[in-house]
Each structure stands twice: as structure tokens, then as C-alpha cells.
Amino acid sequence: MKKISAPLKEKDILSLKAGDEVLLSGEIYTGRDQAHKRLVKDLKKLPFEIKDAVIYYCGPTKAPKGKIIGSCGPTTSSRMDAFTPLLLKQGLNGMIGKGSRSNEVREAIKKHKAVYFLAPAGCGALISKFVNKVKPIAYPDLGPESIQKLTVKDFPLIVGIDAKGRSIYD
Amino acid sequence: MKTITAKKIEETVARLAKEANTLLRKDVFSALKGSYLAENKSRPKVMLKAIIDNAAYAKKEKLAICQDTGLPIIFIELGQDVKIAGDLKQAVLKGIESGYKAGSFRESIIQDPLKRGKSVYSGAVIHTDIVTGNKLKITVLPKGFGCENKSQTKMFNPTVEIDEIKDFIINAVKTAGRDACPPYVVGVGIGGTADYAALLAKKALLREIKNQKSKVKSLEKDLLKEINKLNIGPMGLGGKTTALAVNIETYPTHIAGLPVAVNISCHALRSAAATL
Lengths: 170, 276
What we know:
Chain A is an alpha/beta fold. Chain A has helices at 10-15, 33-41, 84-89, 103-111, 124-127, and strands at 2-6, 21-30, 54-56, 94-97, 115-118, 131-138, 147-161. Chain A has a five-stranded mixed barrel.
């Protein structure tokens, strides 16, 4: 299994092919519906460095006592499709979620040499084991939908769409 | 006449909310295990193993099985010989709030569907049925919205052929596709009115997998077979199991129509019940 780190490097992205299993370590940002709606309005003053960043479509449960995060699996990626091409244009080069993407997203992934990963869907409890650190970043009023920086170690993912636009579902 | 206090109801609902979110239903767990054993392709087998491991880890650590702890749906069967001391609806809502808080679950409910705003713990959909006897049965079903978003209702003509109904149900699963955490449990309501068929479809999810009591067993069996030929599979990566079960509930309807509703559940079909 390939080990890669986030922020993602172009050479790592180009080495990935749809269907590859990878272990991702490094920093990723949570962001889902409402955060995306705000990000595209805030394109000129984004709350984090979007160049080479990875967004994880996730709204975790609260951290129970003694833990740093609760259950934190992926949410349905297609709800973010309308916003994704704009963020890819700004330099975002990785996304983690579950399920299919639109053709527009696939084309934008190809154009900007990015990658879309699938995380084990409905396995939020298990995924919490790969998160070592949580830091609030933006939009705290959104609660579970706020943007948080997660430091992950060996997060198991599958490449859903690679930089050539190939999809695991083809 | 038996008296049940609002306090008792609140405590019970809080306990059920915690249990439903952290402890996968036994019938769902064993259906997943059965699918794991039956699967011979490597990728879907690995996915089913992750789903089973996730349920075991959630149980051990008292963590939510899924971060989407849902919109709580509460089914109440209230015996007509029960007297409630206090406010039943408030007791249920308070129980949900305290159970979700104690479990550190997700604040997924917004008070205004249009303005949206801050998400909180309070809010639930409550269905109450008056039945005979002196018991109160409460069921908590936390419904995640990845799969709730895939619900469908259709009003058919009364002269419709059964194959058209089957196509509608199979297409609802196809539309849910890879997005809503397959393998699914497919709840179907046939009959009643548009709203009642949708309620039956949701209620069908409460029926235990492999329960033999269905009135339309062969239809359920046929549909399950067809759906499992779709090759959507666990996490949408192919395989033998696209659905763990198809549960259908039927009800009398009007001579002019035939409402059919589909309510899909993700593999983390969670519910817990208690009788007071």
C-alpha cells in the first residue's frame, strides 16, 4: 500500500491511479455543505491555505471524554459538486468523501491535476483511530460543519478519481 | 389504568438514543456477517470487514457507529389504558436532547429549514399510535440523511402491473447508487395515501431482517434478488450484497390509486426499543 502525505505533492498525485489503496498522513481540513457555500463566497480571503490542501467531507460527532474526536466518517461527496471546481481552481488538490462525482468535477480534477479519495463509508468510529490532532480553523458558528484541521496518520483511502480523470467506478 | 411519569419516559428515551447510536442492531450485525461470509471478491469483502469492525469498535468505545447520528424518529405505541403524568411530547424531546448530549453525538438538527442557522440536539419526528392495553412502547430510530435523501414516493394507477412497481423500487436503489452507504436495507410502503405510504416505508425498517411475518414474502425475495444483481455492493465497489433486505409493509388504499414509497437505510440501520 502506498504511503502519501498531505499537503499533497504533485509527483505523489501523478503516481496515483484510480483503485489504488493508500495510507494518508498529514494535515487535512474538514468541510461540508455550509462550509463550501461560504468558501466560494470567501474566495479572496480564504481561512486557510488552499494551495495543495486536502478537504475531507466530514462533520464529526463531538469528542467524548478522553478522546480528541468522535465518530468522523465521510459524507456524500456529490452534494459538494457545485462548489468543487471553483476550489480546485484556487489550488485545492485533494478531496476525501464517499460516492460518485459529477462529470464537471471529474473534468476539473483532470484539468487541475488533483485527486479524489474514497474513505470507508459508514465507518466513522473506526476512522477516529487515525486522527491524532484536531484544530478549529473557521466558521465556528457552523458547529459540526465548521472547518477543522485534522492531523491524520495512515488514514486508509482508495483513489476514486485520479489526475487523469479515471474513475474507480468506470 | 396504569400511570407512567414523564420523567420515566424521558430517561427511557435518553437510554434508547444512546443505545441505538452506539450498538448496531443484532439482526443487522448478523446480516452483515452473513454477507461477509458469502462474498468471495476481495474488495467488497474488505469493505464488509471494515463495517463489521466499525460496529465492534463503536460498541467497545461507546462511540457513535456513524458521525451522522441522524434526525431521531420516535415511534410511540400508547396503550389506551395508560395515563401519562406530565407532558409526553416534551418528555420525548428532552430525552433525545439529554441522550444525544451524554453520548457526545452530533448536533445535526436545525430549527428553521429555510434560514438554516445553528445546529442543535433538540428536535425529533414523533409518530404516535393509540393501541389497546396498558403498555407504552417507545422506539428510537436515528435516521442518517445520506440515505434519507434518497427516499421516493410515487402514485401509481390502480391498474398498474406489478413489474412497474418492482422497477420503481429497483430504480430507487439504483438512484441511491454508491452514495448512501450500501449495503442498504430497503423499506417499502404500499397502499394508504402518499403520506401514509411514506410512513409505512420508514416503519418497514424497524422490522427485523429475516422476519418471516411479511404478507408479501415472495415479492420481497424477488426484489432482493434483483437488487443484489445490480453489483453496487459495499461502498459502491461491486459485490454480491447491494441490499441486506427488502422489507415491505402494505395497507388498504383507494380504488383510484396505488401509492408506493421507498425509504432506504444505509448499512448502519440503527434502532432501539423499550416497553414500559
